[in-house]
User: Fold Ribosome assembly factor mrt4 from Ceraceosorus guamensis.
Amino acid sequence: MPKSRRDKVISLTRVSKKDRAAKASHMDLVRKAAQDHAYCWVFTIGSLRNTFLKEVRDLWKGSRIFFGRNRLIAKALGESPEEEVRDGIHGVSKMLSGPVGLLFTDELPSAVIDWFETYERRDFARTGNKATQDVVLPSGPVMMRSDPPEALSHPLEPKLRKLGMPTELQRGVPTLLRDYKVCSKGQALTSEAAQILKLLLIQDATFQIVPLAYWEASSGAVKRTELTAIQTEIVENAAAGGIGGVGEGRKKGSNNASTGKAGRRKKVQGALIGESSVAGLEDEDEMDDDEMDDDEDDLEQRDSGMMLPAGV
Assistant:
């Protein structure tokens, strides 16, 4: 029997948006961190993962990490010499563009740079990430990249065929009928390729923090760091595809949603990482709070005049 179009779940809940008091509280946290620490680092992240961000927070206890709304943080630090909370820190505000965050710490710059260069975590790539290697599977049993290699279990064979792989069951083992190329180095991963890599236990993404510059309280100067070729590539990918390294594959699928009703809603850009909590921050929006309130009133008036079909 076909599914009824009227069989839909309608949520009657409403989530209250953040008010000015919440934003002012975040700004106070940023100002306090600037007053309490001797250095402020500007960084970006390749292949953002919340799990690893929490790990970084635990490793940097005593320091403060802010990753969220750039405009709000810039306003808290001060965008001009007259507004800055400490001498020279307005230079950091000018660098808050794109997927960047701040680290307030008392550790010496040499120790911070060494830590940034050595800390990285491997994870499965997602749709839109650029492949870092060519992955070609030979004909025969589909093997996982484990130690020792093991064949995929037989219940996964229909999923492999659904993902486009020419497979069949032979003696209870998913088997490729011919060589199959999953991805090419440098190209954005499709949804199917990302799922295949995960099934094969191939981790093709690296969570890594790249320092861009730092401010020091003693001199009030903002100094840029020298980046390696790998770090430069991470910065370019993050700027082109967002914090999570999402490339063209995901952006194409989100164009329609951004131009419709959902485009008028605010989206979460990042999270505020503190010593004991990770709080989401709203993305930047060109309209001020008054204009947003007017739009919501218009939407409520329009919705109040609409009636649901009988039986819903």
